[in-house]
Amino acid sequence: MNESNYQFRGTDDYIISDDLMLTANIAIRMNKPLLVKGEPGTGKTALAESIAKALGRKLIVWSIKSTTKAQDGLYQYDVVRRLYDSELGNEGVDDVSRYIKMGKIGEAFCADEQCVLLIDEIDKADLEFPNDLLWELDRMEFYIPETDETIKAKHSPIVIITSNAEKELPDAFLRRCAFHFIEFPDEKLMRDIILAHYPDIETELMDQVLDAFFYVREYFELKKKPSTSEVLDWIGALKLSGIPTDKLRSDLPLLSFLIKKDEDLETVKQSTGGLRGGLR
Amino acid sequence: MFLGFLLFLRSGGLKVTLHDWMSLIEGLHQGLHGQSFHGFYILCRTLLVKTESDLDKFDEMFHRYFEAVDPVKISQEIRELTAQPDVAAKVFAGYFQKNDMPLGEAMLQIEERLAETRELLSAPVAVNAATAFGNVPGGTGAGPGTGNGAMMQGAGGKSIVHARGDRQFRDWRTDCTIESRQFQMAFRLLRELSRKLETSEEELDIRGTIDHTCRRGGILDIRMQPPRKNRLKVMILIDSGGSMRPYEQLCSLLFQSLHKANTFSDLKIYYFHNCLEQRVYEDPEVDPAKSIKTDWILRNISSEYKVIFVGDADMAIHELMDGSGSSWSTASDDGITWFRRFREKYPHSIWLHPQEREQELAWMPESFVEIEKVFPMFRLSIDGLKDGMYKLMRGN
Which residue numbers delimit the AAA+ ATPase domain (chain A) (predicted)? Predict the structure, then answer.
């Protein structure tokens, strides 16, 4: 395989599957935004951080909320402040550019070197949101009518977009992206991931944790299945608490770190009460 | 290059555009597939598949299309070429020149690469059988791992086998029955659609007002805009008990996500037992004490409500066609008449059925066929729900 195609190879604390590594590199090389989907907690956001770290680029995070508008990412024109200033007769009111503040995309475009732009949880926003960004992400430029100025990216940023699949994204938007669906890691990959975060973890604890974790994940009908980030939290909590680890699977201590929904906690508690030991 | 594959994918219903295709060719040109079959698979997947619900379809089609690629035949052809150096030299002349490489060495390399590919291609046969044992889902937690891992190793890295043989993305197909998270997703569609409803109401557009006031130098200029409220009113009638037992969990999910959606301006939920009768019930226990007259609904609930029936439409035909068969009351009207009345009163109404539709309509229960004549029917799957919602918004 051509070495130069392999810009990104994961970092020490972010273990990556081969497929995702290939995909990420393809997206970077082809200058396409990479759309990452997957279960919550499988490391979608961490991917961007890891790429930024591995390539030594600055990471700009734009977290999307339900109220976020596409415009917010480009620039904001502070009309109200300008109005105040004009009433008070402050200086520089006629200089419109003083009231233009760059958003995250604007920031990434204006940066002096290539950076990584993470558009986090794009599906949180309004349904029209991705469509409003089509031109900007395609052409890597936008126009500010207030100052009659076109902002063009000096270096096209590496764009990573994450989605939890809460809303479907418009086709026109998808067409422009490279796509990857992060699968839930298998046991081997999970081991590597845990080792990356807790290099000094004892084998005993690791085995017990994984055993208990996959048991919880697969045996019970859960609404929100625990994922990578939960298992990492859980290990952290277990280590801190010093609870003996030999009966993790039957006792499931500190379960609330693993399972976040009340209903799910009930489900597991009820079942384990009756089944303890029987399934070993 | 690979134009046939593009057409094959499109004929299979994957929306691959020419633009995607150009990207793929560009990627190949840049060597992003790394000269390996798996790399090619990933490259195609990255650039051509846009949503997880298409992944399974893509895997299947990729497998079907390239299944025919016979490494043995190819290597035979290559061997024939090696036997005839002058022909080979002609065919690969450009390549040799560029890479400044003697013929023999090049052939060796090709053979090596082919051997690799052959291994990958022949692997699924061995592995599919093996996974049948290795992959017994981890009821006890220890499942995935050892057995599989070893098999994958043999196949030269896990993914190619995994991706092509196992069809790991099956769960994400949208044409199967819904699960909790996906359910809510589907209901957002209804919300999306409801935004498009026309309304004459208006509210103050603060942003616009400020903007325009500033433009006029501080003289107040009020701007109005239509509100973004959901004006949608929904009535749901759910078949409860009896043949619907197996779908109880599904219905409960539907119920929950409807409540969670919480975006309708009014939501009414009623239950009926098997077939619509004189009374409908207010809770799933179909307690006659908590029931209201079906007639009352027809008279009092306005026709702007969107009506969704949920049920398997599987009832005894006499229950549907003549009133005497009703299970709880001494009805004078038969079920189908009630259904027709609903249809007349509520032009925006659909029927969702949880079970799979048989290929031939004639194989479905007779009552199903009858009801389909009255209501547009959709399966309670993501795709079905989506189609149903569109239908519901459009009316007839």
Answer: 30-188
